[in-house]
Design a protein that fits this description.
The protein has a domain at 3-196 and 249-279 and 318-332: 3-Layer(aba) Sandwich (Rossmann fold), CATH 3.40.50. Helix content is 41%, strand content 16%. It is built from 11 helices and 13 strands. Helix 1 (12-23) links the parallel strand 1 and strand 2. The longest helix has 26 residues, at 150-175. The chain binds uridine-5'-diphosphate-4-deoxy-4-fluoro-alpha-D-galactose. Uridine-5'-diphosphate-4-deoxy-4-fluoro-alpha-D-galactose (UFG) is lined by residues 86, 88, 126, 128, 194, 213-215, 218, 230-233, 244, 246, 286, 309, 312. Uridine-5'-diphosphate-4-deoxy-4-fluoro-alpha-D-galactose binds at residues 86, 88, 126, 128, 194, 213-215, 218, 230-233, 244, 246, 286, 309, 312.
Length: 353
């Protein structure tokens, strides 16, 4: 059984990926500081899968703790590194916290992996690295743009750090300075588009802290009566209905992609670094998401058009054909499945977590 370290494994995407890994026979160790999630998620994962992953409560930006953790789990075959802070607005207010939390932890994870001889990494990147692209859909070769906030910059810089680690390895190999049994670095940066939805069991899902920043939890909390009204940020964009367009992807499809990525790294021939867009390949406007929510759940949503949100891009969606070609992965679930599962999760939340 292959052991995989999943950092941030109690978070939204992390928990769904842990479920998928356990169901596919992987042995999972979760490392999480629980700063934006709850330890009880582990019990929910166990309820779904019948397997309880180990949870190590650890701040990975604490170098000593992080290296100790990797020493303890030096038999791990691979790492999936989700752990990071991800709120755009918060990152503007607290840039140093974002750089320290997201970049220090990456550096220490890499150092821990290097020392443990575990050099297979799946990294959570984001479509935010593309900014507002000139041509749509975006491929992995679409040029990255300067980041619009510290959070987005941590994703961009993290990709650069990973590329440098791989270059360092390749240079060492060329010069013959590596030990004979040095395992090659294999790194996949997965650029997520907009993950929404929840596990069909409604036992795990997104648990935003306080007032949600993102569209889907705001919709479900409004429908549940926790928020009075959803504000649609702008209807004067150059899109068919005037509201911004994103590529929404079901979190379970995203979880599947991580297993496909793990299998890909084990295939002969791959070493170094590669990038994959993980999106459904369709763009939906904010109003289309609202319509899907009302259609799939039968709930009426209270919303009003408000002004644009600062820093929002107009439209983006993915060309995900590279992931299909090389990973054999494709997003399968519809927008209605996404909005309905998000609602079922919201309903289940009133029953405690
Ligand atoms: N939106 C509203 N009202 C809201 C919230 C959002 O109209 O209350 C609109 C936004 O204007 C945008 C769309 O819904 O057009 C999606 O917004 P999100 O906040 O859900 O997601 P973003 O596309 O803005 O992406 C942000 C970050 C990404 C990150 C993603 C998920 O920029 O880097 O959230 O956390 F990956």
């Amino acid at each position: 059984m292959k052991k995989v370290i999943v950092t941030g494994g109690t978070g939204f995407i992390g928990s769904h990926t842990v479920v998928e890994l356990l169901q596919r026979g992987y042995d999972v160790v979760v490392a999480d500081d629980l700063s934006n999630s709850k330890a009880s998620v582990i019990d929910r994962i166990a309820e779904i899968t019948g397997e309880k992953p180990i949870l190590e409560i650890i701040d990975l930006s604490d170098r000593t703790a992080c290296l100790r953790f990797f020493k303890m789990h030096s038999d791990a075959d691979a790492v999936i590194h989700f752990a990071a802070a991800k709120a755009v607005g918060e990152s503007v207010l607290h840039p140093l916290h974002y750089y320290r939390n997201n970049l220090d932890s990456l550096l220490y994870v890499l150092e821990g992996m290097e020392k443990a001889g575990c050099r297979k990494l799946v990294y959570s990147s984001s479509c935010t690295v593309y900014g507002q692209p000139e041509h749509l859909p975006v491929t992995e070769d679409t040029p990255r743009q300067p980041a619009t906030c510290p959070y987005a910059n941590t994703k961009r810089v993290s990709e650069d750090i990973l590329a440098d680690v791989v270059h360092g390895y390749e240079a060492g190999k060329q010069k013959g300075t590596l030990e004979a049994d040095y395992k090659p670095w294999k790194i996949l940066a997965l650029r997520y588009f907009n993950p929404i939805g929840a596990h069909p069991s409604a036992l795990i899902g997104e648990l935003p802290n306080g007032v949600p920043n993102n569209l889907m939890p705001y919709i479900t909390q409004t429908a549940a009566g926790l928020r009075p009204c959803l504000q649609v940020f702008g209807d004067d964009y150059d899109t068919p209905d005037g509201t911004p367009i994103r590529d929404y992807i079901h979190v379970c499809d995203l979880a599947d992609a991580h297993v496909a990525a793990m299998e890909y790294m084990d295939k002969g021939g791959f070493e170094g670094m590669d990038y994959f867009n993980l999106g459904a390949g369709h763009g939906y406007s904010v109003l289309e998401v609202i319509q899907s929510f009302e259609r799939s759940t039968g709930q009426k949503l209270n919303y009003k058009i408000a002004g644009r949100r600062e820093g929002d891009i107009e439209q983006i969606w993915a060309d995900a054909s590279k992931a299909n070609r090389l990973l054999g992965w494709k997003a399968k679930r519809s927008l209605d499945e996404m909005t309905l599962s998000a609602w079922k999760w919201q309903e289940s939340l009133s029953k405690t977590i």
